[in-house]
């Protein structure tokens, strides 16, 4: 028996069957850029990676949830690494600034994944990484410190040459990733309760 055609304006229930655990991506396809900004937002429940171009326009974003991790696994270091690698490979970044927000457990893992991907940090990003390093000391006055290494290699707080009276709380803190065989040297001055500031090097 033929089905009656519903009249215009009438309502009819439509039931659509979906495959269980089906995943849908609501993100539009990303364009390829070689230089941009990576925003890492690490909370205690999730890690979100957003990539923008130098003008601040969002090009691509990824999160631990969209990468297939669920519940408490979304905040794990492994999920953060996968999320960062997914975003970088999709966009094809070669050079980027990294902006970090949040204190979730996946923050450092995402930074390590970004560093290992071969992306070169800008001077601003290196300074921000240095600001994250916590020192412990009872010194007064000014003390000199330095970093002098040769690439390619991954630079951490452990590479800082400190005076005997100063120690680093977390020596695994990332600083920069050298992808080429170059010399990397930075002179540092440590002052008690003086925060952070940059100075131009004097040439004699």
TrEMBL record:
<dbReference type="InterPro" id="IPR001971">
    <property type="entry name" value="Ribosomal_uS11"/>
</dbReference>
<dbReference type="Pfam" id="PF00411">
    <property type="entry name" value="Ribosomal_S11"/>
</dbReference>
<comment type="similarity">
    <text>Belongs to the universal ribosomal protein uS11 family.</text>
</comment>
<dbReference type="GO" id="GO:0005840">
    <property type="term" value="C:ribosome"/>
</dbReference>
<dbReference type="InterPro" id="IPR036967">
    <property type="entry name" value="Ribosomal_uS11_sf"/>
</dbReference>
<dbReference type="GO" id="GO:0006412">
    <property type="term" value="P:translation"/>
</dbReference>
<dbReference type="InterPro" id="IPR036643">
    <property type="entry name" value="RNApol_insert_sf"/>
</dbReference>
<protein>
    <recommendedName>
        <fullName>30S ribosomal protein S11, chloroplastic</fullName>
    </recommendedName>
</protein>
<dbReference type="GO" id="GO:0006351">
    <property type="term" value="P:DNA-templated transcription"/>
</dbReference>
<dbReference type="GO" id="GO:1990904">
    <property type="term" value="C:ribonucleoprotein complex"/>
</dbReference>
<keyword id="KW-0687">Ribonucleoprotein</keyword>
<dbReference type="GO" id="GO:0046983">
    <property type="term" value="F:protein dimerization activity"/>
</dbReference>
<keyword id="KW-0689">Ribosomal protein</keyword>
<dbReference type="GO" id="GO:0003899">
    <property type="term" value="F:DNA-directed RNA polymerase activity"/>
</dbReference>
<dbReference type="GO" id="GO:0003735">
    <property type="term" value="F:structural constituent of ribosome"/>
</dbReference>
């Amino acid at each position: 028996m033929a089905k009656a055609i519903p009249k215009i304006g009438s309502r009819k229930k439509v039931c659509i069957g979906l495959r269980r655990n089906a995943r849908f991506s609501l993100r539009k396809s990303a364009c390829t850029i070689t230089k941009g900004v990576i925003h890492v937002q690490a909370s205690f429940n999730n890690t979100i990676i957003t990539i923008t171009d130098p003008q601040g326009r969002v090009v691509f974003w990824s999160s631990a949830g969209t990468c297939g991790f669920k519940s408490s696994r979304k905040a794990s270091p492994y999920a953060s690494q996968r999320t960062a690698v997914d975003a970088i490979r999709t966009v094809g970044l070669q050079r980027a600034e990294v902006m970090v927000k949040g204190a979730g457990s996946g923050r450092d893992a995402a930074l390590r994944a970004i560093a290992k991907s071969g992306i070169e940090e800008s001077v601003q990003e290196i300074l921000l990484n240095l600001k994250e390093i916590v020192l412990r000391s009872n010194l007064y006055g000014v003390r000199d410190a330095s970093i002098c290494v040769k690439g390619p290699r991954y630079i951490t707080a452990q590479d800082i040459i400190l005076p005997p009276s100063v120690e680093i709380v977390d020596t695994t803190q990332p600083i920069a990733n050298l992808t080429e065989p170059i010399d990397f040297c930075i002179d540092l001055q440590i002052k008690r309760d003086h925060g952070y500031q940059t100075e131009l090097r004097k040439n004699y």
